[in-house]
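hey so i finally got around to running both of the ones u sent me last week. sorry it took forever, my laptop kept dying halfway thru and i had to restart like 3 times lol. anyway pasting them below in the order u listed, first the sequence line then the structure token line for each. didnt double check formatting much so if smth looks off just lmk and ill redo it

first one:
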Amino acid sequence: MDERLKKLLRLTIERGASDLHLVPSRFSSIRINGELVSLSDEKILEPREVEIIILSLLDEDQKVKLLKYKDLDLSFSLDDKARFRANIYLQKNGWAGSFRAISSEIKSVEELNLPPILHEFIKKKQGLILIAGPAGCGKSTTLAALVDEINHTQARHIITIEEPVEYIFFPDQSIVTQREVPNEAYSWHRALKSALRQDPDVIMIGELRDPVSIAIALTAAETGHLVLGTLHTNSASQTIDRIIDALPDGQKNQARFQLASSLIGVVSQRLVPRIAGGRIPACEILIANQAVKNLIRENKVYQIDLVIETSLEQGMISIERSLATMVSMNEISEENAYLFALSQERLKGLL
């Protein structure tokens, strides 16, 4: 790895940043608590310099793929202390890279300030748990916390399918096998289909990204496996819609019944700036009780938001209630609460 990149990555870790952006002919930037900060004390890198730095990360196979497809996902370790997920891509002014810092320590549900109901979700022997939210909101971190808790508390066979592998799990009570596409698995779909023949108890899918992966996840959850996955959606009800809408018309009805029978719950989260510094997750929690299952079967997903709002005693919570609670605890400002609310009117009523 090029020493210039090592220096910038170390600086990213030292400053507590989540991301490093390397773009030619501009100052490199890091993202701290959701805000981009220009590294104006560092040298501006010209296109050829960025290309040399980026190519220093890659083996020959990766270089071939990068030149063919013009972008590439990978993960790597730095100084055996930190890991990064990277996307290298070609843009108008040459090669560029985005590097996401991944903590070497997998934090617990409590350390991440996540709702305790998640402990109950992962006690289930089979079903589907979905972690939703926009990019950069901590979905992978939440997923890792749940998988690692299973690893330390239950004797299960856990298979993870990721592109690329982010957190490294060290087997404890469970067997953990991690497959990275395309290094340890030829393709995403092949890895998912093969997983069902590898005697898994738990399947962690880095991202439910297309109709095939969604269909396989639903089948796996319905046939005796605990399946955990992420989606880029903004709310629990939107997550249900995305699962159904992604499938062809001829499969939608079957998918509704599969989802209704297998869904355990949905966590939709945002990372909100704290008054004291750093960020804290605001979480919407949907628990698949009988009312929710009926609404999914009857294609009345639009009524799910009302069920969440009126089922607080069962452990469900809307994103607005989560934000309002954090405002009342002086964790976040009202201004930031309104920025992250899906319904400002609902939040106003709760505040």
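and the second one:
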Amino acid sequence: MNAGALDVVGIGNALVDVLSHGTDGLLAELDLVKGSMNLIEADRVEYLYERMGAGIEVSGGSAANTMAGVASFGGMSQYLGKVRDDQLGAVFAHDMVATGVRYETPKASTGPSTGCCLVLVSPDAQRTMSTYLGASSLFGPEDVDADAVASGTVLYLEGYLFDRPEAQEAFRKAARVAHDAGRIVSVTLSDSFCVQRHHDAFLDLVDHHVDLLFANEAEITALYGSDFDAAVDAVRRSGTVAALTRSEKGSVVVTGDALVEVPAHPVADVVDTTGAGDLYAAGFLYGFSRQMDLATCGALGSLAAAEVISHMGPRPEASLQELAGQILAD
């Protein structure tokens, strides 16, 4: 693997998250499917926001959370994602830089406002997301910073951004730039509903543009239209390295000739599962970019996921670098 000046460069939807607790009854009232991600428009944002209880606001977006996690491990990361030159856009940019992530994407001066994600966390810690993409959805090929992409050991692409054709072309452009520079291209499927909406495009991306795939059990089975074991066989045949998470069952790392089972890291109390997959990817990518073995990469991912589900919010509150000390010492 050709090492770059940066460990990981991520591309995704730049959003500000609003998180609040919500009962199953409230989800039913709002016609929301628990555990799902729904794309909404500005008027729906106002309606849902009024129905939500007191909560917290924090800069988010899946790949942005992952880049913050890489930085928390002590890695060098850069994020590419679009915001508007409004109040939420300024908050997002400030928060990214404050976590140690390089963020230099120019703010849009026209068009929709900065995107947001309204997250209702159920008593069982499941998160149900209603996302207004806003300015983030307008990320296109012209927004790909080729110099940044070429400088990252691994490029990380967020499946949530995949809805518009322009974003899909931005992914393909970034992947070409990364491969031309001898870098690794990775993608997270993000959500089974995303996979169902763009099934053929995702299959093409995985088969022809991606070296490293992140998915949970629902996403990988949706991609291959099969049960988990058959999906593992399919991804093994594709030649793509895949890190597949299975909640409390841990994760499985699949290669063409190996299958590495990684146990879940213990956590005393699951408070909020928001960001679990994002932070698993952060730990795995940090290890992978530093050429650690796959078992260690998975262990770092499990550690980061356990930290983030132990509190509200999608980003680590403790230093992942300090928490990882024992794993890396071994």
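quick thing i noticed on the 2nd:
Residues 6-14+60-113+137-329 form a domain with the UDP-N-acetylmuramoyl-L-alanine:D-glutamate ligase fold (CATH 3.40.1190.20).
anyway thats it, ttyl
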